[in-house]
Each structure stands twice: as C-alpha cells, then as structure tokens.
Specification:
With 322 residues, the chain is α/β, with parallel strands linked by helices. Helices cover 32% and strands 22% of the residues. The strands form four sheets. Strands 1-7-6-4-5 form a five-stranded mixed sheet, sandwiched between helices. A four-stranded mixed sheet has the order 8-13-12-11, with helices on both faces. Helix 3 crosses helix 4 and helix 7 runs parallel beside helix 8. The longest helix has 22 residues. The protein is globular and about 55 Å long. The structure holds oxa(dethia)-CoA. Oxa(dethia)-CoA binds next to helix 2, helix 6 and helix 7. The site of oxa(dethia)-CoA has 18 residues, from helix 2, helix 6 and helix 7.
C-alpha cells in the first residue's frame, strides 16, 4: 500500500523580548497607528544579541519534546531547517540541531524565502513516502531582525524572530499531507531580496546583507498568489474551500491575510492570525501559528488545514493537510 506522510508533532518558540510599536516610535519616524492600520502588527519578538537561528530552532524542538515526550524524536533520520538567516553558510543550522539532540540523521538547510517551511514539508513528505527517510524533523527558524535595516522604516517595523518544528512521518488515512503547490519567479528578485556571498542581482545591482523590499509590489503579488496558490492546493487535495476547517496563512500583513480569507469565502473564525503578536517571522510564521492554534484547541481530530506563504524574490507555496 502507498505510504502517506503527515505531521505527528509540533512545537514552537518565540524569544521573550518584545518590541512594541511604541518602542519603534522612539527609534524611527513611524507611528503605532501607521503600523497597525497598514499591517495589523502590534508587537514582535526579538532574539537577544547573542541568540541566533540555531538557538531558536533548539528551543522549538525542546517545546515539541515537552509536548510529545522524547519518543517524538526517536528514529528521526533527517533534519531540515528552512531559514533565511542561517547562523553560518556552513555548517548547516540543521546539523547543529542534529548534534544538539544527538540524532543519527542527515541534515541540511533549505533556502526558499518565507515559503521555506512549506517547501521543507514537501521534501519531508517525499522522503517519507518514497522510503528515503522514516522521520523528518522539519523546522522553520528565523533571526530575521538581525537582517533588518533599522534605518529603513518601510521594512524595519514588519519583522520578528521565532521558530517552529514539526515531525513528519508515516500516518494512516485520512491523516496526511496532500500534494503541495510550490512556485518561484526569480524575475521578481528586485522587489524583495537580501544579499549574501555573490552580492548582486542580474544586471549588477549591488546588494547588502539587509532586507530590501518594494512593499507595494510585494503586496499586489501576495494578494494574487495567496488566491491562486490556495485554490490550486485545495484542488490538488481533491477538496473545495468549504472543506477547509482552518486556514493558517503566512503571517506578514493582516490585510493580505484577510483578502485571502475573503477570496476563499471563509468566515473569520476559520483563520489563524498571530501577526499582531509576532510580526512577520518568515519561515517560522506558519508552524508558530499552527502551534498556537493547537494550544487554543482550534485544531480538532480530522480537521483539514490549509497553509500558504509568499515571499522573497519572489516565491510561494501552499498545501492542505489532515
Ligand atoms: O514575507 C513577505 C514580506 N513582505 C510583505 O508582506 C510586504 C507586503 N507589503 C506590505 O505589507 C505593505 O506594502 C507595507 C505594509 C510594507 C506598506 O504599506 P503600503 O500601504 O503599501 O504603504 P506604502 O509603501 O505605499 O507607503 C505609504 C506611505 C509612504 O509615504 P508617502 O510616500 O505616501 O508620503 C511611506 O513613506 O507610508 C510611508 N511609510 C511609513 N510611514 C510611517 C512607509 N513605512 C512607514 C512607517 N511608518 N514604518
């Protein structure tokens, strides 16, 4: 019989230090009112100076262990960390997680901008279903505030730090991850990017290791792609929007989330919103929001969840799971 992969454990972490909109008012020319009405963000959690993506990833796995016990990691044979802010180019942040928890596992980082965690789930699903792996630890972890240009108010107010971890392994029907939608358009690199080693765009524009964004272009792209990618993912799962019990979108901007919810015809109570508390913590945002939903008793046995994300340079992903 065909193998089916699904999520069997979740955990999350956000650093305790909170930066409110009022705090930002004292640091730059912005206002609580502007940030709230344009984005829905009130606060964001920020990693300490000496706290990096690997530390956040460790904490999210510790949270998962607290919830499910040590058995949850037994047999994990692959660790994937989706991140835009790896501690180093190498070793992979995932290798630091492997070592920290004493796993006998392969490990690699996955760089696919904000949809990275959904990409990681799709890889985990394939590895489990084709027999390559027994259990995959798929983490989204981000110390994004270290990549933010604090002199650029148009981006500095948007981002936060955090991490979320999931175990993916074989499950029985009706549980499992449906085939996912994965997309990219590198032609949109100019609209949202951050530099690394080869620090220039096609055409030669010089990049710095800071987030640079054309907010309006990304907004228009986000609203469009959240619509098309979710419909495609629901279709791939053989469902209709009415079948979705809970919608857990990437937490970048409340207006984008609400537009997507409306296009799907879902009532407000079927959407998870955490952007007010965390801002946009990129690859961490969906597993963190899912863990919150679990804690709030909003995910019940057999529920079908829809996830979707969009982001840098440009990219998107969506999927349905039971
Ligand atoms: O994971 C993907 C991450 N990216 C996104 O999700 C970004 C998607 N885009 C957005 O969320 C929105 O475009 C923003 C929230 C970034 C901006 O909202 P907007 O309604 O598109 O504003 P805007 O960029 O058109 O700027 C409007 C005004 C400008 O002033 P003028 O030119 O009208 O005088 C900006 O200079 O707001 C000004 N502005 C600010 N004012 C106060 C820009 N940033 C700020 C700020 N505080 N932090």
């Amino acid at each position: 019989m065909d193998r089916r992969a699904g999520i069997t454990a979740l955990g999350a972490y956000a650093p305790p230090t909170v930066l409110t909109n009022q705090d930002l008012e004292t640091r730059m020319d912005t206002s609580d009112e502007w940030i709230r009405t344009r984005t829905g963000i009130r606060r964001r959690h920020v990693a300490a100076e000496d706290e990096f993506t690997s530390d956040l990833a460790f904490r999210s796995v510790e949270d998962l262990l607290r919830r499910y016990g040590d058995e949850a990691l037994a047999g994990v044979d692959m660790v994937i960390v989706a991140t835009n802010t790896p501690d180093a180019l190498f070793p992979a942040t995932a290798a630091l997680v492997q070592h920290r928890f004493g796993l006998t596992a392969g490990a690699f980082d996955l760089l696919a901008a904000c949809p990275g965690w959904i990409y990681a789930l799709s890889v985990a699903k394939a590895y489990v279903e084709n027999g390559q792996c027994r259990k995959v630890l798929a983490i989204g972890a981000e110390a994004l505030t270290k990549l933010v240009d604090w002199d650029d108010r148009s981006t500095a107010v948007l981002f936060g730090d955090g991490a979320g971890a999931a175990v993916v392994e074989e499950v029985e029907a009706p549980y499992g991850l449906a085939p996912m939608v994965l997309g990219a358009d590198g032609g949109g690199a100019e609209h949202l990017h951050a530099g690394a080693v080869g620090a220039c765009l096609p055409g030669g524009a010089k990049l710095t290791p800071k987030v640079v964004m054309n907010g309006r272009e990304v907004f228009k792209f986000a609203v469009r792609v959240m619509d098309t990618a979710t419909i495609e993912a629901i279709d791939k799962a053989g469902l209709t929007p009415d079948d979705i019990e809970l919608f857990v979108p990437h937490q970048a901007n409340f207006r984008i989330i609400d537009a997507a919810r409306e296009r799907l015809g879902l009532p407000e109570e079927r959407v998870v919103v955490t952007v007010d508390e965390y801002g946009n913590n990129s690859t961490a945002s969906i597993p963190l929001a899912m863990t919150h939903a679990l804690d709030d008793g909003r995910i019940r046995d057999g529920d079908r969840l829809l996830i979707v994300a969009f982001g840098g340079g440009l990219s998107w992903a969506a999927g349905v799971m039971t």
